[in-house]
Amino acid sequence: QAASTGKSILELVGRDLKSTQNSEELLKKHREATGGRIVTRFPPEPNGYLHIGHAKAMRFNFTVAAENGGYTYLRFDDTNPVKENQEFIDNIKYCVEWLGYTPHDITYASNYFEELYQLARELIKRDKAYVEHCSKAQINEMRQKKQDSPYRNRTVEENLKLFEHMRQGRFIENECCLRMKIDMTHENPNMRDPVAYRIRYVPHPHAGSDWCIYPTYDYTHCINDSLENITHSLCTLEFENRRESYYWLLEALDLYRPIVWEYSRLNLTYTVLSKRKLEKLVKDKVVDGWEDPRLLTILGLKRRGYTPSMINEFCNEIGVSRNGNDNFTQVSLLEYFARVELDREAPRTFGVLDPVLLEIVNYDEIQQKDIEAPLFPTDKSRGSQIYKLSKHVYIDRDDFSETHVKGFFGLTPEQLVCLKYGPIVKLVEIVRNANGEVQLVKVQAIHDHKEKLKGYLHWVSQEHSMDAVVNLYSYLFIKERVVEDDWEKYLNPDSLVVKNNAKVWKNLENSQVHDRFQFERLAYFVIDKESRTDKHNGKLVFNRVVELKESKEK
Ligand code: ATP
Ligand code: MG
Ligand code: MG
């Protein structure tokens, strides 16, 4: 059932608006508004930052419309002011644009508060809603027992008056609410008189302090879809059992009915996506805010070095299906798209994470000190850079061993190595400090070495180096599928390893935030926005995007 293009998905979803029992009259009005075009919406609730699951939802909604000559609304589903704020609204707008989408219009559920209120009065007049005075717990109990509320048969006049009083602020929070009058014996619990309005004495980030009653998702969403003439209301599978009440309400109000189609939520291995969990990690400072490079929020991914095209190509690849909300996609698939693009676009350089200092004892004898290295080894026509040799060079601690070990390719007292693109060197002396730690390794450049070498090491000349901070990010969780209640137990204590004493070539000095490189033999890196700040003593900060190859240990 998977489909990755908007065209084929539309075949699956259907496009005949008569299928949802719209009258000719409603269809005529609808067509006048849309010109017969496909209309979708992306409806985030501004209660957190957008994540890669939302990227999937956007990809679906925006491409289905665009590939069929239609358009898409960005609609803030902002009916619950308790958890929503302007920071989240701004973040959502930014992420939608960053991922390359241009909404037909940006709307807010709260723009319709007056209309929604008048429609609620209409619903009451049609005897299809009533003011409920039972508590939340009592409502739940009656739902379970399929019992009518004692307030269910209030007269239309009484309900209109009480609803007016709700709006005027004459009740306290939770004292009463407005419920749709559907069917308390219905087999679908969501049809057992869902709540339409609740009282909240909280100002609204968009609507200000005009209201103390706020409509629920169940009441609002379908009406918004209808008023915006959405042709295809695409949502995730957890809303499947709310489709009946969606249609019930539109029918009760004689409003135009869109086609509703549900698809699977995206879950990725080794991470969590639900906003509730992300919020907890942010609040508890387990991560460095919503933008932490370990989070798969859109801004976290951006800071991690992901580009919109990497994310969108991943979304194209996974497509949409109705396989279920419990399916997990391997995060390695997302990394694959990062790697493909980085291999193509990220110039090569060398970076040393844990430096060991070498001294080339016969440095003066070396002829070739300006060493040319390709920016892209597989395509030399794309240019080169010069690595200037100096008497002292850094190699990585991982590439040096004081004793020879079988299978080790690095520098040892017995093993020669090549400083990649440059000279071959042989160890001549290990110099130690008073504590016996290696302080300096003296090596000799060899000109006439004939045997095959094992190690071609990355290196940086001390004289042409600069200090850098390197953040080695790994998965945030050690468990592949994080679904448990005690999910925080599976946090990876080593999800960030910081290399504070790294060395990189000085020619990277003018790099800009978000520039990406391959540190040959190590990984792909991106320049972090905290580069050159006091927090890091003015140093450049590099974030590891992905490793060069998919790691085997999992
Ligand atoms: P969360 O549980 O993370 O709060 P949500 O569904 O409440 O998610 P919204 O901001 O209300 O998040 O969602 C906006 C749109 O994005 C909805 O249509 C929703 O179905 C979709 N969406 C959210 N998370 C995912 C996901 N993981 N995969 C696919 N679509 C998603
Ligand atoms: Mg939601
Ligand atoms: Mg939510």
TrEMBL record:
This enzyme's EC code(s): 6.1.1.18
Enzyme class, UniProt record, top EC level: ligase
Example of a GO cellular component annotation carried by this entry: cytosol
GO biological process: glutaminyl-tRNA aminoacylation
Domain annotation Glutamyl/glutaminyl-tRNA synthetase class Ib catalytic: ranges: 38-342
Record's catalysed reaction(s): tRNA(Gln) + L-glutamine + ATP = L-glutaminyl-tRNA(Gln) + AMP + diphosphate
GO molecular function, one term: ATP binding
Domain of life of the organism encoding this protein: Eukaryota
Key words, A-Z: Aminoacyl-tRNA synthetase, ATP-binding, Ligase, Nucleotide-binding, Protein biosynthesis
Chain ranges of the tRNA synthetases class I (E and Q) anti-codon binding domain: 457-528
Domain Glutamyl/glutaminyl-tRNA synthetase class Ib anti-codon binding: residue ranges: 346-443
Claim: Aminoacyl-tRNA synthetase is one of the keywords in the record: yes
Protein family per UniProt: Belongs to the class-I aminoacyl-tRNA synthetase family.
Protein name, per record: glutamine--tRNA ligase
Organism name: Stylonychia lemnae
Whole sequence portion shown: 214 to 767 of 773
